[in-house]
Records
---
Amino acid sequence: MTIWEAMEERHTVRHFTDEAVDEEALSALSARIDALNVQFGLDMSLHVDEELQLWPGMTLFYSSGVNNFIALAGPNGSEGAEHIGYCGADLLLLAQQLGVNTWWIGGTYNMKKASEGTKGELYGVIAFGYGKEEGKSHKSKDAARVSRYEGTAPSWFEKGVEAALLAPTAMDKQAFMITGRGDEVRISYKAGAFSEVDCGIIKYFFEQGAGKENFRFVNGNK
Ligand SMILES: Cc1cc2nc3c(=O)[nH]c(=O)nc-3n(C[C@H](O)[C@H](O)[C@H](O)COP(=O)(O)O)c2cc1C
């Protein structure tokens, strides 16, 4: 499965079967987590066959079978949050390529328990496993509402925006604006809960669509 197919086929899944996740998929996820932790100075960890204690009410009809998760911990501050978004996006798409479904959860679980043994701030978790269904496409804004390019937009920019619109965002807000000029791209984001994490996710997806070699990011909100 190409990364583009993974972006198109990934949707949030909240109901998982009891089937154990394939050992090979687990080692691939574990190796990627280790590599990202080293590269970005994060403290993400893999939790297999360990119940994620969701807030009461969430387990009634909303979700089931959440017994595997990745704890998304890293240094406090906006850079840490953005890196978590960027690396979490990488893990979501790797999981999809391995045939594993995912659900990014910001804060509606027992954070104290999930953060046991982790360093820094716990920005969220990615629940994973084999979905009872594949999920469905989220409602999406039009590219024209979330992007602007000075002059005629090159195709790499349009592809990047298309990819960014496939990305998950907290409460499906898609509250970002992508502006381009020459080979410079700026992602700005309306401040709110998880906005810096969302920004990291958008950067990752944009990069997959646009191709890293075609542009460079310049500071967005800062
Ligand atoms: C940072 C972040 C936090 C999220 N938190 C929650 C959450 O607490 N509960 C939940 O049910 N979904 C949560 N989601 C999932 C989003 O609601 C979902 O990604 C969005 O609606 C888009 O749907 P999609 O993932 O199928 O594209 C979160 C997603 C992100 C990126």
---
Amino acid sequence: MAYLEITQLDKHYDRFQALKQINLSVEKEEFIVFVGPSGCGKTTLLRTISGLETPTVGQITLDGRDITYVHPSKRNVAMVFQNYALFPHLSVFENIAFGLRLHGFTKEEIEKRVQRAAALLHLEPLLARKPKQLSGGQRQRVAIGRAIVKQPKLFLFDEPLSNLDAKLRVRMRVELLNLHYETRNTAVYVTHDQVEAMTMADRIVILNDGRVEQVGTPVELYERPTNKFVAGFIGSPQMNFLELTVEGRRENSLACVAEGLGKLVLPIQTEATIEGKKVTLGIRPEHVQLTATESSVRLPAVVNIVENLGSENLLHAEIADNQLLVAKIAGGAAPERNHRLTLFLPGEHLYLFDEQENVIPISPLVALGSPRPREKAETP
Ligand SMILES: Nc1ncnc2c1ncn2[C@@H]1O[C@H](COP(=O)(O)OP(=O)(O)OP(=O)(O)O)[C@@H](O)[C@H]1O
Ligand SMILES: [Mg+2]
């Protein structure tokens, strides 16, 4: 049995079902991130683990103990919220010590634990201050300190960094990860920021409409999404999608048609029976090329908008009426608006989704094991 085990969990609020059949196993010392659009159930699931909500159906065990109906204060979990919820009239020291005093720890033990947390969080010079004399980032560290001193079996974070400005958020992200490695704690962290999820998580849980869409390492979710929702959610800018109808399978390719684009021959193979079916083609902006690769789909396009981000350019190119494709290309000089060019979609970076939005297994045309000739000159 895993360290934290959630089994067949449902949560209803009257007739509204906020969580649907949640199953999840978290190993000790893992850093798990819940991510998903607003209202998908992230906070509800976290609060259910902490005991602030009771599941309608299902079971939660932590370190071998069934905690489904155990009072929050008896679960040995600590939760850090988005709004730090500090006591304004208490000093930093007393804010951090508060829970320990409540539980009747000795003065010496409290002193020891608070000093250790303050050292970990670089709060030592601030212990005598009141919350209003602190910056947002410092307040958030106090809230984390309050969780650390409890030495919980499990840390629960609900968007702890979303009140901070972008620069501070990046710094706190690194500090939180350092803390995680130093204290080897187990943590479940909620965010709706997919960059935060990708950079912090050992494994990501993607939630959508109360369900788990996919669980995996950041790389797994990026490279092998099991459905269109995950493919579109992970990655920034998001994956491009094109609606196609499959006309027929050829020996080495898939012949398709798309409205406004006409015929498209995809250099991929699949075992699935998809002749005559509607499918969605997916390709990430970073995989769209401006020069030909060995086997790729060619799409004539007209440059619409170029977003210059310094290190890279985001090219929004019109491939048909009202149909844009985004390409992430190297920074520096970029093609200008209304410039005509050809976009190349390499076969090995294509995804295909069926009408139920599940991924269709495909393989690119390169024979396994044979080296791929890169950057071969295109013969016009
Ligand atoms: N006490 C409640 N009573 C009724 N519905 C609730 C209650 N709490 C949450 N919900 C509903 O459950 C769904 C999930 O809410 P939840 O707060 O878990 O979303 P979330 O993923 O944390 O969203 P956000 O990213 O906006 O914080 C929402 O549709 C919400 O309106
Ligand atoms: Mg929430």
